[in-house]
TrEMBL record, chain A:
<dbReference type="InterPro" id="IPR019191">
    <property type="entry name" value="Essential_protein_Yae1_N"/>
</dbReference>
<keyword id="KW-0539">Nucleus</keyword>
<dbReference type="Pfam" id="PF09811">
    <property type="entry name" value="Yae1_N"/>
</dbReference>
<protein>
    <submittedName>
        <fullName>Protein YAE1 homolog isoform X1</fullName>
    </submittedName>
</protein>
<dbReference type="GO" id="GO:0005737">
    <property type="term" value="C:cytoplasm"/>
</dbReference>
<feature type="domain" description="Essential protein Yae1 N-terminal">
    <location>
        <begin position="42"/>
        <end position="80"/>
    </location>
</feature>
<dbReference type="InterPro" id="IPR038881">
    <property type="entry name" value="Yae1-like"/>
</dbReference>
<dbReference type="GO" id="GO:0005634">
    <property type="term" value="C:nucleus"/>
</dbReference>
<keyword id="KW-0963">Cytoplasm</keyword>
TrEMBL record, chain B:
<protein>
    <submittedName>
        <fullName>Protein LTO1 homolog</fullName>
    </submittedName>
</protein>
<dbReference type="InterPro" id="IPR052436">
    <property type="entry name" value="LTO1_adapter"/>
</dbReference>
<feature type="domain" description="Essential protein Yae1 N-terminal">
    <location>
        <begin position="26"/>
        <end position="64"/>
    </location>
</feature>
<dbReference type="Pfam" id="PF09811">
    <property type="entry name" value="Yae1_N"/>
</dbReference>
<dbReference type="InterPro" id="IPR019191">
    <property type="entry name" value="Essential_protein_Yae1_N"/>
</dbReference>
<comment type="similarity">
    <text>Belongs to the LTO1 family.</text>
</comment>
Length: 225, 141
């Protein structure tokens, strides 16, 4: 607020006595202080008013974004849930039931992960949080772990995504990726999208095994980007 | 005398105006800052709410459309009632503007869909498992 300081300057040219000058200086300082105070008050009022005026708008924007982001994975979850209940009624073999269940859990994990990312979207990500998120994803890809991230991040992510989903379906042992904090938001999104596509493909594949008619399978495949 | 009085008035005005001006300039700076913070904060809350509704509605839609296709492929007469309920629920879901936070009947409409879904499940005699890892999941409905 440089303009506050500038306000008092140039008002005391008539310096006849030192005493007067001192008085003027004191008065000037006081004036500056009062004005600074006023500006601060104004700033605080402004922050409150600005926030109040924009919160709803921000909420609306975010809401739309969040809804669009999750409707597809929700649909896949509903699809798998329908398949599971159908197969239970048809008394399908245990192996297939277990596979549907694990895919369903993987979709659940994917959604949790997206939700966590949404809630921290506008905050500075903490390395510990990201590490937690990666651990929750149940990935244990040795090659990805050993790979140095000196080259293209995208390439690493591309290789990782299918393995990541595969591992989370198998719910294998947990392992953390050491350099996870270096992921950028967009790259993470790309990886997650591939993850969802992979889950869709797996679901479609499973439906074919269950000899479910082609038009139903196609309906699921359409979810893919 | 009149001129001096005017000058005094001007001076007083200037003092009062300075007060207003400083407050105003601070206010503007704060308003810009606050607007930015409000958008960010609002987006965060909104995204979470939207995500939950989007996921839930998507889930019902996926569930119903798959069951509809499965039953239709059965070509069994006794499924006609189930198909009727499925169709009515699918219609409710498709008419639900899940992306629109300003939709006044959002909760009312969503509750109706939930009720209809329960009805459908008992008709199909299934207890849907939506694969929530833990019961406390924010997405669980």
């Amino acid at each position: 607020m440089a303009w506050v300081g500038a306000a008092g300057i140039g008002t005391c040219r008539d310096e006849v006595f030192d005493e007067e000058a001192n008085e003027l200086q004191v008065a000037q300082r006081e004036w500056t202080n009062v004005m600074e105070q006023r500006a601060k008050e104004g700033y605080r009022d402004g922050v409150d008013a600005g926030k109040e005026a924009s919160l709803q708008e921000g909420f609306n924007q975010g809401y739309k974004q969040g809804a669009q982001l999750m409707v597809k994975s929700g649909q896949l979850r509903g699809t798998l849930s329908a398949l599971l209940s159908w197969c239970r009624l048809q008394e399908t073999g245990c192996a297939l039931l277990a596979r549907i269940s694990s895919l369903l859990e993987a979709v659940g994990r994917y959604e949790e992960q997206v939700l966590r990312r949404l809630s921290s979207f506008n905050q500075q990500p903490q390395p510990a949080e990201l590490l937690d998120a990666v651990q929750d994803m149940d990935l244990s890809n040795d090659t990805a772990q050993q790979e140095e991230r000196t080259g293209s991040e995208d390439r690493v992510l591309n290789e990782q995504a299918p393995a990541l989903a595969a591992d989370s379906v198998k719910s294998s042992a947990e392992a953390a990726l050491p350099n996870s904090e270096s992921h950028k938001m967009t790259e993470e999104c790309k990886g997650a999208e591939q993850n969802l596509n992979w889950l869709i493909q797996q679901t479609a594949c499973l439906m074919e095994q269950l000899s479910i008619s082609a038009d139903v399978v196609q309906q699921v495949q359409q979810l893919e980007n | 005398m009149a001129a001096a009085g005017l000058l005094e008035e001007d001076l007083l005005d200037a003092i009062v105006m300075a007060d207003v001006r400083f407050h105003g300039e601070g206010y503007q700076e704060g308003f810009a800052e606050g607007s930015h913070a409000g958008i960010t904060e609002g987006k965060c809350y909104g995204a979470l709410h939207g995500a939950k509704v989007g996921s839930e509605i998507g889930c019902y839609y996926g569930f119903c459309s798959i069951w509809k296709s499965l039953l239709q492929n059965c070509a069994d007469e006794k499924h006609s009632k189930k198909l009727k309920v499925l169709d009515s629920l699918l219609g409710m879901i498709q008419n639900f503007p899940y992306e629109d936070p300003t939709y006044a009947k959002l909760h009312e409409h969503l509750d109706k869909i939930r009720g209809k879904f329960k009805q459908l499940c008992s008709l199909l005699s299934v207890q849907p498992d939506f694969g929530f890892c833990n019961k406390d999941s924010e997405l669980a409905f």
